[in-house]
Amino acid sequence: MLKDHMGLDAGEGLVARAQVATELACWEACKDMISRETTSRAEARAARIVRPVGVVEHQAMRQAYEAHYGKPTNSQVHPKHYLGLKGEVVEEDDPKTKDLAEVGSRQPGG
Predict the structure, then answer these.
(1) Within the chain, how many helices (H) and strands (E) appear?
(2) What is the biggest distance separating any 2 CA atoms in the chain, rounded to whole angstroms?
(3) Count of CB atoms within 10 A of residue 99's CB?
(4) What integer pLDDT is reported at residue 26 of this predicted model?
(5) How far apart are CA 33 and CA 38, in angstroms?
(6) Alpha carbon 66 to chain centroid, angstroms
C-alpha cells in the first residue's frame, strides 16, 4: 500500500526502509491516540462529564475564525470547557436553552 500510494518500497534500501518504518510508527501512534480519545469521550459521556475541547481543536477553531473574520477579541474567544459543552450538544443533535437564572445580563460582558 505504501508503495502504491506514496512511492515507498522497503526493498529499495536502508533509506527507504527507514521511511517505511517511520510511516508505520506514525500510523500506529495515531491509531493509539484515536483509540484513547474515543475511550475518553465514551467514559466522559457515561459519567455525564463535559470534556473541554482539546488544545489542537481549539487552535483549529481559532484559526478558522481568523481566516474568515479576522483576529477575534478576547470576548469572542470562548473557553475550552464551554466549547466542549456546545460540541456535545451539536454531536447529540439535542439543543437546549439556558435557564434564565444562569443568564446574568443581556449585554455582552455585563
Answers:
(1) 4, 0
(2) 68
(3) 7
(4) 92
(5) 9
(6) 17
Please give the Cα distance from 81 to 52 (Å, whole number): 4
Q: Which amino acid is at 51?
A: R
Q: What are the distances in angstroms from CA 22 to CA 10, 13, 52?
A: 11, 14, 31
Per-residue model confidence (pLDDT) at position 28: 95
Count of positions (residues) in the chain: 110
- The amino acid occupying position 109 is G
- Helix, strand and coil content of the chain, in percent to the nearest 5, comes to 70, 0, 30
Question: How many CB atoms within 10 Å of residue 46?
Answer: 8
Intervals of the chain under pLDDT 70: 1-2, 5, 10, 98-110
Instruction: Report the amino acid identity of residue 43.
Output: E
Q: Is 79 helix (H, G, I), strand (E, B) or coil?
A: coil
Distance (Å, whole) CA 57 – CA 13: 38
Q: CA-to-CA distance for 39 and 41, rounded, in angstroms?
A: 5
